[in-house]
Amino acid sequence: MPDIARGKEAKVLVVEDDRALRELLQMELSRSGYKVEVAMDGGDGLRKYREENFSVVLLDVKMPGMDGIEVLRQMRSESIIPEVIMFTGHGSIETAVECIKHGAYDYLTKPVKLDELEMVIDKAYEKNRLRLENISLRMEVSKFESHRIVGKSPALMKVMEVVKRWGPADEHVLIYGESGTGKELVSRAVHDASPRVNKPFVTVNCGRLNINTAESELFGHTQGAFTGATKGRAGLFELADTGTLFMDEVSETPLDVQVKLLRVLETGTFRRMGGNHDISVDVRFVFASNKNLELCAEKGEFREDLFHRINLLPINLPPLRERQEDIIPLAYFFMKSVNGRGQENWEITEEAMAALVAYSWPGNVRELRNVIRRACILATDAQITSELLPFAPPKVFPQRQSAPAAPSQLPLWVIERDHIEKVLEQVEGNKSRAAKILEIDRKTLYTKLERYGLDAQLPAVKGAS
After folding, report:
1. Is the per-residue pLDDT at 410 higher than 70?
2. 3-state helix, strand, coil in the chain (%, to 5)
3. Which fold has domain 163-317?
């Protein structure tokens, strides 16, 4: 049986040409706790159906102009999400069969008792809710285990304490962290710690939206809103209603869309593209950025008022190089996920562990996952050795020879190390100039200096900053 209390959350559209019955249904259903909108005929009903997000539609069959069956056919050609209940005072088996064939949830004959009508509405709403839930689940492309946050470092434990404290607050959260640190996992943890845990969790990567698609993806659109919009479509805000919307790389949101996003945050309402009616949603936002939004706002790349609105509960997720205690547990977790539950006896040699911990991980957890996947594929035994890693074991290098071998006889990393060292000597340790000569960015240079043990030499070099 459907949950009666939950069924009363249904938003119902009543399309009925009889004014007395229309007003009676609006009054009685509203009194019972439903959110009710009414339309006086098929055209009016179709217009409201395209502009708003309804759970259930009550649609009269016999109406002047466009009859209920034609309205039903057009509604179903545009969206299959709201459930449509047909009712008429002149019922017949043929009409009922035709309505069901066009996608009606049920077919009722007037007069209808209010308690029976509410029972049908509640069942239809429950079906509608389950359909939306399945759409949300399909949008979560990661497996359930990928939502687990693995680690034991003090830095990660501090993050999780903040998540537990702020999860139930229902205010918007802003997560800072480099690419690949696991910001989406933390956002899911915020959702799971909130009263919305059993509601939709919807994600969007703002970096993949452009000026032409962002508004349609977020707000949805009505039929004919732009060329190619043959039917209306609900946006991500509507799919996340009552739940959480995770907006990754929010700094990449187009500025004109930022204005509308701010309005949603302030009022809880928005309009679909091409629509002329406000739609109300109850959404908790979790934002994430790998850029400093305050600096972006100073440069005019991000709206300052939006920054202050979303910077209520910031969470700083440290990079993997600052939580070395998490590297080996994560490596075993990824090793297990790659090889399956039937092969849990894989091992990592001590040399490989040392190399993993010493590496700086510029790509963070995402890079570690890919390194472990690659090593498992290349391994001939159930063991990961340092030879399977794509980087040399840091700071474990042979002593320099008095008579150097020919360059063709040296490992590639030795040639690279010596070349970097020579360039640094030429520029007296100036990293910026060295990076330009080497044609790499400073971050990459820092990584190589640490990997080859050259960073320890720089304080003795003039101009090493």
Report:
1. no
2. 50, 15, 35
3. Rossmann fold (3.40.50)
